[in-house]
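Write out the 3D structure for:
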Amino acid sequence: MRLLRQPRLALLFAGSALNEIGSWASLIAFWGYAAYRFHSSPDQIALVSVMWSSPGAVFSLMSGWPIDRFGPKAVMIAADVVGVGAALGMVWAQSYGTLVVMVLLAGTVSAFGRPAASSLPPRLADDEDLLLANSLLGLTTQLALVIGPLVASVAISLWSIRAAFVVDASTFVVGVITTLPLRLRPPVTPDPATATPTDLLAGLRLAWRIVTVRRTLLLGLALFCSWGASMVMEPLYVRDVLHRSGATFGWLQTIFGVGLIVTTLLLPRLGDRVVSVRAQAVSVLASAGAVVVYLASASLPAAAIGIFFWGMLTALFLPPFYTLLQRSTPPDSHGRVMATAAMTNGVAGLATTPLAAVLVTAFGVRSTALAVATGLLVAGAAGWLTDQGAAKRASRAAATAGYAASSAE
């Protein structure tokens, strides 16, 4: 972990971890705030959830241009400053309507802040350390999945639901403090013809034009869709298939987090062998098996094993996913491609969550899980075969060029 020996980078990773923990604590709190403070109906609580998640799908594309134009550091600081205001706004919210507006603002902060954070590693680390930097940033999110709800529970127990929002505001301040000292590589001036604030589709066009980026994002889309569907399936699976309490659901999520964190820590040892389209396709294929073992069985031990391996496979996918996108993208376009990746994730979640609800209602959790696994199998196999075909074509082209060169001599 040589990057952690650099004080500024160590502070960045620590600040990012605290920021993510605060965001998860706030996420837990505003659901509770809506339910207990404003006695919201199920529809109103659903609206709060949509206000949190929809900016990732709607506004992420907008974040690409300022990241490439002003740099990820400036966008991260601006997002953290606005995040302080959004968190404090929830503390002082006196009506359900105000809370909805503040949640929408918090979701927008995330829509700009996350692509900016994922654009930082190429400006901070050498190419050989890029996977390590992405793994460390990924670890900050993963730790938050485990620690954030606990922090929210402690803060709420000691004071009230509002305490979680104060914690969130404080972590945004820490984010600003830890980002300010960063010294990034000299910025690359974007081409004015392709980097304009009105051209929101520049990242999409670029992603489609670069073959490796396109294949990587399509594999990511498949996995993101499975995550969106699992948000509906998992609690219903624990309740209706395993016939267990909410505590069991919590334990299973903890097991997922353990698999996620342990594998992320091991990623730098695996090195660049996991940073390829082929490795991404293998992760998607294996995830289909994890979904079947976890959500299509009626056994708690099998579910625990399945979700542990799903956590491992998620870790094998995400940091290499961002590393592959960064290496395959021109430096002046990192922001737009990272924003496109964030938009892909957001759209996949918004589309598949309601679809999964319909399928579970009609066919049950286990049948829906099998359908999700089938989709992952098709996507992973397509990614593998496409990459194999491209490798063979490249090999034949190289052999032909070599033969032509030898004949000319």
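Residues 95 and 314 are 39 Å apart (CA to CA).
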